[in-house]
Amino acid sequence: MLLRTFAVALVAMCPFLASQTAPQLAHPAPQVGRPAPDFTLHDSAGSPVKLSAYKGKVVLLDFWATWCTGCKVEIPWYVEFQNKYRNDGLAAIGVSMDDDGWKSVMPFLEEYKLNYPVVIANQDLTTRYGGLPSLPMTLLLIRS
Q1: Distance between CA 84 and CA 90 in Å, rounded?
Q2: Are 104 and 66 in contact (CB under 8 A)?
């Protein structure tokens, strides 16, 4: 009897619990067929990187972090893609999600020899890209 009462109470609380654990995002994640949210952030040399400046190119937008094992597997592929397809209009952009920013990223860039711009994400960018619930997350953006 006690177990049944507990189960009924738990079921009754589900809508309340769901509303507490699954907040609605202010900005939904990018959708297929819709333009990706624009951003301007600075790369490791301090130069601005503006996504909309890459219009007309296929952009490989990679959200990653230095501590992410899957990211470390993918990044050499992206370096190779950049070498092989740069002249065909591919442009890779790395977006680091490291909390301590350039402190972790600069040594990583030296070790992995990335041949494309890398920027550090901020909270606004993270929000506009749907919160980025897991890493790595790579988006392939079409030329338009």
Answers
A1: 9
A2: yes
